[in-house]
Specification:
- The structure holds 2 protein chains of 2 kinds.
- By secondary structure, chain A is mostly beta strands.
- In chain A, β4 and β5 form a beta hairpin.
- Chain B has no helices and 11 strands.
- The chains are: A mainly beta, B mainly beta.
- Chains A and B meet through β4, β5, β8 and β9 of A and β4, β5, β9 and β10 of B.
Chain lengths: ~110, ~110
């Protein structure tokens, strides 16, 4: 079946602009996660959604970062007023429920000039 | 704070040899661990997992060992192949009540033909 998909695969933007990144989870997965991966580093947790529960936003680095999810489907991660330090690969994952194996998408590579 | 660390950043092995990748974790309450493989330009791919009530789990050519006494995790790859070249991450769930994974920095496995 289809895995997690993300778009765009690459995004180049200018400092100060807003960007939106999209994630389509595996169908039927109630939990969805966003991570950030800087070059040569591990993954940093940003936020996760579980069904209709309030999202866990504890990993968002600043109020410039926000995310939404419509029901148990698509999620968008928005970064406002992008900074150069936001340059990274943003990875989305989904799982059948929280605490279960997470399956990752290919990521969106964000470059802020 | 919580951390999952890997002992060696790069491991170089000869094709056909066995590989052992090590990981230390700091949260004794963690009860679920996952190994991921990440190839260049792709998202992490699930390899194998283990829960804290087990010491060992085997998959196809891979074995994960868990030593809860010293909080150590290892991934063994038998008969390493060039296609195994990638970055390997261990990840832990610090609590059964959370969905977020804590990732280590990763070990790069290089397989020499």
């Amino acid at each position: 079946g289809a895995g997690v998909s993300q778009s765009p695969s690459n995004k180049v933007t200018e400092k100060g602009k807003d960007v939106e990144l999209r994630c389509d989870p595996i169908s039927g997965h109630t939990a969805l996660y966003w991570y950030r991966q800087r070059l040569g580093q591990g993954l940093e947790f940003l936020i996760y959604f579980q069904g209709n529960s309030a999202p866990d936003k504890s990993g968002l680095p600043s109020d410039r970062f926000s995310a939404e999810r419509t029901g148990e489907s698509v999620s968008t991660l928005t970064i406002q007023r992008t900074q150069q330090e936001d340059s990274a690969v943003y990875l989305c994952a989904s799982s059948t429920s929280k605490g279960m194996t997470q399956y990752f998408g290919p990521g969106t590579r964000l470059t802020v000039l | 704070g919580e951390s999952v660390g890997l002992h060696l950043p790069t491991l170089s092995v000869q094709e056909g040899d066995n590989s052992i990748i090590n990981c230390a974790y700091s949260n004794s309450a963690s009860d679920y661990f996952i190994w991921y493989k990440q190839e260049s330009g792709k998202g992490p791919q699930f390899i194998i997992d283990i829960r804290s009530n087990m010491d060992k789990r085997q998959g196809q050519r891979v074995t994960v060992l868990l030593n809860k006494t010293v909080k150590h995790l290892s991934l063994q790859i038998a008969a390493t192949q060039p296609g195994d070249s990638a970055v390997y991450f261990c990840a832990e769930f610090p609590s059964s009540n959370t969905g977020k994974l804590i990732f280590g920095q990763g070990t790069t496995l290089q397989v020499k033909p």
